# Entry
Amino acid sequence: MKKLMLATAATALMAGGAFAEDAKIGIILGFTGPLESITPAMAASAELAIKEVNDSGKFMDGGTVSAVRADSTCIDAAAATAAAERLITAEGINAIMGADCSGVTGSILQNVARPNGIGIISPSATSPGLSNAEDDGLFFRTSPSDARAGEVIAEVLGERGVKSVAITYTNNDYGKGLSDSIAAAFTAAGGTVTANTAHEDGKADYSAEVATLAAAGGEVLVVAGYVDQGGKGVIQASLDTGAFDTFYLPDGMYGESLIAAIGDGLNGSYGHIPGTDSEGAATFVEMGKAAGFDPTSSFTGESYDAAALMMLAMQAAKSTNSKDWSAKVMDIANAPGEKIYPGELGKALDLVAAGTDIDYVGATAVEFVGNGESAGNYRVYTVTDGKFVTDGFR
# Structure
């Protein structure tokens, strides 16, 4: 009798065509290294999307999604590659949310993801070099390329009447790509770049680098570095010597830890991070605060969106296989379709399962261009009385 009941149940499942399928997402971020103060909120944002999907009970006919964290270190390509390999071989992940920094992201893409056919959506790897990387259709990013960031920086500097800048950049793919973009855009707009020099992370003293920059001159020092590493050191040395007192701070330099470390000397400096004033952004902030993390930190909305897009693409593909779901990402992210915002992932799963087109707007007003990256929205801010104060969006 027991065997008959089991057989009947199995037949019913087959007749309904419903088979729950689980998924596992690897979250690879620099939990140690020069961005370690901002990555916990990024991971929490991705995990918030995963929890939302699991709570809905609507993923892949009742399947569940789990997250496994791994440390990219941000700067050690060998360590990041090994971490990604472990996630694939030991954990059996179906997707990678990450990595964070451009160099390690490129290494994971070429050395791990492509050979193993694993899809990646990075929330923060912004190097222009990744735009044309060979990726077999597996790589996307919810943050805009630094080619666009350079244009925004040139616009902001011009609007503030700045005619000359010096640039210092962290000596890696991210820093070099961003500094080149800034220099090209600012020069094209009629500005003068007095110096464009690299700095190494991990040094105790940046007085020599600052002396070189000071000798070149410039009204503002653009610091294309990392908030917990060399960029912070260059700013402190500049203030200590009086070389510069106003700094432009791109996305890698945005973090409360910088204000805590530098203090009043940062007041009056300004910069940008990816961001939007859309309806979805406001909803995400509320959700993040309720979940107990800082949703205004760098790349949090982009992390939520990266994880959400993966899961919705799996639903659309009816498969957790990366080669299947990655082919659905552009359709899910872009118009036409019913707009989907944070907190609506359960609704989105229902629509996708029913074959209805959706346009995932998410926390960052995502719209992918042809090479699988966000077209780009930015929040411009000024440090005022020890706080990052929003000036506007573009």
Q: What stands out?
A: The first helix runs from residue 2 to 16. The radius of gyration is 22 Å. The mean pLDDT is 94. The longest strand covers residues 192-199.
